[in-house]
């Protein structure tokens, strides 16, 4: 009450002073002979200054800076981009399902029959086991990554540990939580918003996302290697299509050639692109960082370096321990049951309270 009455008083005082100053200027100019060109120019500049003062007294905020102004100016652009990304997410998910299904169909129709008819028995068994294991792992982790909620801070609990307040949700933000402007919600241990999943990657689905990347890369490498000879044959055959006289291929054969070329090109390109992304995420996980924290930590490290201090990531527990924490590996058998086989176990912790490696000794870098 006191604060609001005080700023209103200050504002009315500023306006009174401005009005009095304008009136004084006008009377002085009037005495010196108003109506001249200089007088009109001076009066216009006074009106301009007075309007600026009025505007500032109405809208000025000490927290305003160029970033806030730019954010306000680009707000409609952000809104459009966020909404387009949100709706394109559905298209991207359909695309992933469609392309993966087409690869599986081509493998069943053309690659597996060739393997079964030409390879020795032990290689046939190996291909059948490896191919189906990779297919199950890809489908399981993609389904779980898309449908599992990444986790959000509880709105009803007011006593949770928090480091800041979200400007959009107006709720406390626990450590490692960030606001996703596409989902328009705060996400626990947010890594990024993935349009290919149409979901945020956060505390509860980070493992599913990373496992999907790993198994999808492995699946693509497997497909491109096992269909390499078929691809070379199909490529040579396609090159003869335009010879005269044209070769006598049946419809099934020409479809097989084109399908195998599509399969090899698609799986090889995805293996390279997704392989790079998977390695990048593996590096981040081994450092105990999310994609967002990577930028924050680099900035913080630079800032502390200027002060002669060394930045230490409080969530880094050692490379192997970080990977074990992500996969939920607590004993040796978990590598088989939780990493190499489909598993729906929950991640360690609730995503709100975090075990920091040196919080008690050195709270500086949190
Ligand atoms: Zn938020
Ligand atoms: Zn999101």
Automatic annotation (TrEMBL):
Keywords: Acyltransferase, Membrane, Signal, Transferase, Transmembrane, Transmembrane helix. Its main location: membrane. Residues 164-295 form the Palmitoyltransferase DHHC domain. PROSITE patterns: DHHC. It is an enzyme of class 2 (transferase). InterPro entries: Palmitoyltrfase_DHHC (IPR001594), PFA4/ZDH16/20/ERF2-like (IPR039859). Its EC number is 2.3.1.225. GO terms for cellular component: membrane. Residues 1-33 form the signal peptide. It is a multi-pass membrane protein. The DHHC domain is required for palmitoyltransferase activity. This is Palmitoyltransferase. The lineage of its organism: Eukaryota, Metazoa, Chordata, Craniata, Vertebrata.
